[in-house]
Amino acid sequence: GAQGHQVFRWKVPRPEDPEELESVARYLAIAIYNRLATFGAERLWLHAPSSLYGRLVDYLRDDRYGKLGDFLTIVNEATFRIAEASARTIQELEATASQGTVAPSPALDPRRGRVIGVDIGGSDVKVVAMEDGKVAYSAEPTWRELLGDGRTRPDEIGDPAEHLQVIRRLIHEAREAAGFGDQLEAIGVSINLVVRNGRVVGRGPVVQGLNDEQIRTVITPLRETLAAEFGVPVGIANDGDMSALWSAVDQQLTNVWALSMGTGLASGYVDAQGFTTELLGEMGNVVVDVNPDA
Questions:
Q1: Strand-pair partners of 45
Q2: 8 Å CB contact between 263 and 193
Q3: Concatenated DSSP letters for 232-269?
Q4: Which 8-state DSSP code applies to residue 277?
Q5: Which secondary structure element, helix H or strand E, spans residue 162, and what is its range?
Q6: Bridge partners of 238?
Q7: Which of 4, 58, 124, 270 would you call most buried, defined as having the most Cβ atoms within 10 angstroms of its Cβ?
Q8: 237 pairs with which residues across the strands?
Q9: 3-state DSSP call for residue 27?
């Protein structure tokens, strides 16, 4: 696709009976599922013997693994498809395999200026105001403290305007406490949901109390909403990507893979050019084989 494509090959025994077919199909389904959860995709091409292809598709569409396809449809805003491919098609894809990167944003030096960062998680929301690389203000209120009415989790919020109110209030408080006034230069938002091209398109506990329409109309355009209110550039990314990006900036490194461990488990990658990528990074969905001989 436009964001790149990758090709994976597996060598497996040719099944001699139905039991072996099930074993091989399940093994491959888990391997494919794990890569879809890590890299994401709009389309999955499969080349395999017809009997194996059929069982693979069955596995990838069942109640255990099929939910990932529904999730990919939501985050990519395009229907996820599985299709059979010829050996020639796979070879052609392999010859041009690539992984897309996110187009760079306007350059901002994190060690200069007055900026505010917000990290929206499932347990709390962290906010920090920094001036020339030094912390001027920080806070880490829990959702219980933020909601103030006995509710303890963000999935108990049924009105998306309340989500916005919490985020806006924290930014206003940080700006005032840090003494930035109208000298605030940029805002960065980290959220434990999938973000595509600056649009919050994922689903998860932090917005579990909202329906799809509420998420699309209020949460998805969060960047534009905050930029319009505060009049400064706003960057928004998945918490895994933000973890990788900050590690790369702080340590002046490239090719950085980071794990973000909070209510869930996310990951992010900064490539050789210093940009985050379109990797899905939903490591919390990866199936782990604990067999010592795996």
A1: 83
A2: no
A3: S-EEEEEHHHHHHHHHHHHHT-SSEEEEEESSSEEEEE
A4: B
A5: helix 160-178
A6: 191
A7: 270
A8: 190
A9: helix
